[in-house]
């Protein structure tokens, strides 16, 4: 029984190209009690691997959080399999606006302690006492209300390339940091203002809204399905789109264009640009915003130092990396001394 990937990303990429079939990029999450996440994990891997599903999925006792790429022709079978799992029947699937056949190149189903690394101790508050879920239409109404404080629950590198007009966008590296900062900044308005929040697909607001209610906020609202579902509803129902720029996504696409506004700047030269790249020096891999001019001049690197390393023969690079810890972790996202135009 195959429970793990047998193909490398490169081999997979070649296969996808050869097959030439259309794939759908999908995400969904569900908080539910899962007794044995390991067994559930294996069950998913076996069935989804058969359907040629790729992606990154986290399974925990508290539920499932999945980002996937599914062959369009297998979508029916995939949906039928989801519906066969009691707590996933009719779960809302966020389907990406811009399709990319290579959004994911492996199927990784991981058992974690939590489905979002939120840094919260769930035993200390009632996670089921959530905010009011609102759809795009109600959300548009709410954010025009002068009693509303609109908060972006995502991290700095996400809101930097796109966010709702007039939203507070905390300059934070982690979800946990934003929770504290927002609570402190809005402490005087726990009762008189409406706290309206949003994130990429809605999952972060599920916990954040409950946390803020626990902290004494009286009027808490959350955008159901996040920016992804908002965009779909705005298109289908012909509503005004109050989002600006790109929605940051956690796959190879990195961002999904929602409107033509470019609200960010190249971190190297400062010109208008909202394209995220990873530094080509594998030992660095910093996620940052780079324009085409700088990409050319810097050979896709974040700094002169990285450029020099990147241009060495591969064997030399490997020697240099020896003994060093490569960290693609959160702090390597868009913050570095070498980036002149990143605040
Ligand atoms: Zn530039
Ligand atoms: Zn670099």
From TrEMBL:
Catalytic activity: uridine(34) in tRNA + AH2 + O2 = 5-hydroxyuridine(34) in tRNA + A + H2O
One GO BP annotation of this record: tRNA modification
Cross-referenced Gene3D superfamilies: 3.30.70.100, Rhodanese-like domain (3.40.250.10)
Key words, A-Z: Oxidoreductase, Transferase, tRNA processing
Family listed: Belongs to the TrhO family.
Biological role: Catalyzes oxygen-dependent 5-hydroxyuridine (ho5U) modification at position 34 in tRNAs, the first step in 5-carboxymethoxyuridine (cmo5U) biosynthesis. May be part of an alternate pathway, which is able to bypass cmo5U biogenesis in a subset of tRNAs under aerobic conditions.
Protein name, as recorded: tRNA uridine(34) hydroxylase
Classification lineage: Bacteria, Pseudomonadati, Bacteroidota, Flavobacteriia, Flavobacteriales
Chain's gene name: trhO
């Amino acid at each position: 029984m195959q429970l793990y990937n047998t193909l490398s990303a490169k081999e997979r990429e070649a296969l996808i190209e050869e097959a030439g079939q259309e794939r759908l990029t999908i995400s969904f999450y569900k908080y539910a009690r899962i007794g044995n996440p390991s067994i559930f994990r294996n069950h998913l891997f076996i069935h989804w691997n058969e359907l040629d599903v790729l992606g990154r999925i986290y399974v925990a006792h508290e539920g499932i959080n999945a980002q996937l790429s599914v062959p369009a022709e297998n979508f029916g079978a995939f949906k039928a399999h989801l519906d066969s799992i009691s707590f996933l029947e009719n779960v809302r699937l966020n389907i990406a606006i811009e399709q990319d056949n290579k959004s994911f190149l492996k199927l990784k189903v991981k058992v974690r302690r939590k489905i979002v690394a939120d840094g919260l101790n769930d035993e200390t508050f009632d996670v089921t006492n959530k905010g009011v879920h609102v759809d795009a239409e109600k959300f548009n109404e709410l954010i025009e209300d002068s009693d509303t404080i609109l908060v972006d629950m995502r991290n700095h590198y996400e809101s930097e390339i796109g966010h709702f007009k007039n939203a507070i966008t905390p300059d934070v590296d982690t979800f946990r940091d934003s929770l504290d900062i927002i609570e402190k900044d809005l402490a005087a308005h726990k009762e008189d203002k409406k706290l309206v929040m949003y994130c990429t697909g809605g999952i972060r607001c599920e916990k954040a809204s409950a946390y803020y209610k626990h902290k004494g906020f009286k009027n808490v609202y959350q955008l159901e399905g996040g920016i992804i579902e908002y965009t779909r509803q705005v298109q289908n129902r012909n509503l005004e789109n109050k989002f600006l720029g790109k929605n940051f996504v956690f796959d190879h696409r990195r961002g999904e264009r929602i409107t033509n506004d470019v609200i960010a700047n190249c971190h190297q030269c400062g010109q208008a640009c909202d394209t995220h790249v990873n530094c080509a020096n594998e030992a660095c891999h910093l996620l940052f915003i780079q324009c085409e001019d700088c990409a050319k001049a810097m050979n896709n690197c974040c700094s002169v130092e990285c450029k020099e390393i990147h241009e060495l023969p591969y064997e030399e690079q490997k020697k240099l990396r020896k003994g060093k810890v490569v960290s693609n972790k959160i702090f390597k996202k868009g913050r570095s001394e070498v980036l002149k135009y990143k605040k």
